[in-house]
């Protein structure tokens, strides 16, 4: 969203390089094994093939720039793909909140743009956005990008509070899009609306199609002169001239960044243009059919993957952005591998996001199951025949159903919290599957529900066993208790070594299963880091357990040596000593370990 308020693109480039591209490169250098998962993705491979062919075409290109100056945009685009994948893998829970924040910033600046533009409005005047925007068409790409965001949010949100924000947001961004006087983005919006109507088919789809028809009539009635007065803007003539050049070298093109001049004669005056005003024609001109094939493959595979995984709202959003970009690219674009600018809204950001989503869908770091609606009547029937295992002042929190499965209820959060974008029920599901994938037992997920009151619920098959707190309470033999604490210390070291940071870790959330192994339950509040936990996080884990008197007495007063002995089987002496110091700092006055 910084293009909306920065004074120019140069600062935007520096911010992207310093805050995203370079950190991504550092992360890849430190953990090259991350490339194993990223490079298996067909979209990433398609991009690398396309970029490699483009760089190879410099051999016959007549560009005046050197090889390294043309390679830099390619590398930064590659970092966009890599960085999006890492962001989703390790901080995926914040992505929707970040997108919402960017959309709100864009919305506020757009309101200001409309406020400034309104007094000067005339049919022949076109609005140019503030910030780094310097012409109406490029401004329309940014307005359309966030227009699609609000539209998709309105189609996928499950809470009316979000819908009340999404609809005005879409209308404001659409008004800005109209004010630019650009017509191709209107075609792109129509394509995106049609795509959205089918990829998330529901009752809102009918409203969306109806709104499309009504909106088209209103736009043509109010703005027809502004839209139609410029005729075809000589696009057809430009395309014919570009195709004539392409016919001379159809297979390999003229080479990456080769000079292109198209001359239009208007009223006896020659107007020279330097791009074909069509993304596909630009690709054909520079890198020919051989370059066009991987370029098309990336987009087709991205749309196909999004359709397959349409239960995930982020796939719906990214694919809607891509469809919008395909439509907007019909009459726009020349550079095939640009530096960070408005053209990234149309193609590269959507492709990088879809690739990252596909990678993390395979790694089970994203929700891959539909959220089913559970009516109030159906929930009432389940509750009437269930045993309440846990409840609070608002009602049941965990129910044991007649068939022995558990239904865990997650209360609706305020709409401005991260829980409204990334519900804790979905985090519970994802964390359960991720824990199982790294060898840590967790509940087996059966289904995910949206309740009528805005709450959500997870249906899961419980693990056979008792919580460690229950087991400790029933134990009378100190020797058996010491052996159990030592085993728990080893299990804690395993979690920390695997990068599992369970903020709500205490003996009531650790299960001792009937087979003698440990498992984790109530795991919505959990993160898995790419490497073993640093000492600060290990100490924070202990601070949380020390909040519970019984846990503190058993683990840190009576059996501390056994806990540390078990922890030391996998942890280094420095890590063990850090936990010993943490316990000593927070031990109540007068308490001494046995």
Structural overview:
By secondary structure, the chain is of the alpha+beta class. The protein is 59% helix and 10% strand. It has 23 helices and 13 strands. It has helices spanning 9-30, 34-38, 42-56, 67-91, 95-117, 136-156, 160-179, 184-199, 203-228, 235-248, 279-308, 313-328, 343-346, 348-362, 376-384, 418-421, 424-437, 468-474, 478-497, 535-545, 549-558, 560-567, 573-586, and strands spanning 262-266, 269-273, 372-374, 387-392, 395-400, 406-410, 444-451, 456-461, 465-467, 500-502, 510-513, 518-520, 526-528. The strands form four sheets. The chain has a six-stranded mixed sheet with strand order 3-7-8-6-5-4. Strands 9-11-12 form a three-stranded antiparallel sheet. Strands 1-2 form a two-stranded antiparallel ribbon. α3 packs antiparallel against α11 (279-308), α6 (136-156) runs parallel beside α8 and α8 packs antiparallel against α9. The chain is elongated, with a radius of gyration of 29 Å. Residues 589-594 have low confidence and may be disordered.
